[in-house]
Design goal:
Chain lengths: 191, 191
């Protein structure tokens, strides 16, 4: 961030009066340009004992598998955003959604809210950001080829709850992935 | 938003290729300036059968009562943000927090996440953004002088759950307040 989006003057970084954090401030028009976390909304689409994953066509993590999810838009509710992402990335429509995981990713200034919901039909197809979409049973989840740690964590919570026969709402903080990590088939991290 | 914060050129508003929404786009450096909802985190501080409210020292709604809450900061978890706001606005420290209400306010591009938690002690004091802070029993809640509809809704859920003897996690969408509204003592809106 270099220039004031309001008046075009150069920005300086300092702690404004009454604040305790560095902000980008415009000394010409006095605008303080706050930066805040962004919210990602997505779904776990269910069909009987299987769930739908998308293989990413775009960076980051092109070629790896993920749950349909993306940035919440202005003017949109969280549930509408999650439905939109599911439609855009997986060509899929869901029945009633239930909030399932609300996760902090402070290292990249994101919040993830993942809903779970049954597919309305088995009609689905890859959108522009997906190479393919496919239903997976728990045994077939490509744990070694998941795009993001937050997706792995969400799926671990999901299958763990399913064994228990009840779904809770999960909260927690995702830590940055190490540059290299490997998963065993059971989804546990190994050094 | 008039100027590119990256290169300082004037911005135009158009739908980028592969998108379906109007964005602010820089034709000089090609940056797309996305705008997304911001997250507000806060708490319902409990002390026995009473809860702590703050009377606002600042606009909007100066002089009216609210729960401690404010924008989530980059690099911060939701629970840490809620604790920080409680400390800053009410000078109060809470025991374990539990997520209570996750609410959409699409008309102002905000998401509210409110936690509930017991005060660690009765030590509290108004911060710079508060005129006073005070414990209220349900019968004494100043329903006619609450700052925001989202605060009223959160409190309605809270007291309703408390009567039932169990706290759920509430989701839903807050609609814009009409310019004038009045509340009866029971917290129901009346024309």
């Amino acid at each position: 961030m270099n220039f004031c989006s309001h008046c075009g003057a150069g920005l300086t970084q300092r702690i404004p009066a009454g604040d305790d954090r560095l902000r980008f401030v415009c000394d010409q028009c006095q605008t303080i340009h706050y930066q805040n976390p962004r919210m990602v909304v997505g779904t776990i689409p269910e069909w009987k004992d299987r769930i739908l994953l998308c293989r990413r066509a775009i960076e980051p993590r092109a070629g790896l598998w993920t749950l349909p999810a993306g940035y919440l838009e202005n003017g949109e509710t969280m549930i509408d955003g999650a439905r939109r992402e599911t439609r855009e990335e997986a060509g899929a429509k869901l029945e009633a959604l239930a909030p399932f995981a609300l996760l902090d990713l402070p290292f990249i200034n994101q919040i993830y809210l993942m809903f779970r919901g049954a597919l309305a039909t088995t009609a689905y197809h890859p959108g522009e950001e997906s190479l393919e979409v496919q239903l997976f049973s728990e045994a077939d989840i490509p744990w070694d080829d998941l795009a993001f740690v937050v997706v792995r964590k969400t799926l671990e919570h999901y299958f763990s709850d399913r064994v228990e026969g009840r779904f809770r709402i999960h909260t927690g903080t995702i830590v940055p992935p190490t540059e290299k990590f490997h998963h065993n088939r059971n989804g546990k991290e190994s050094p």
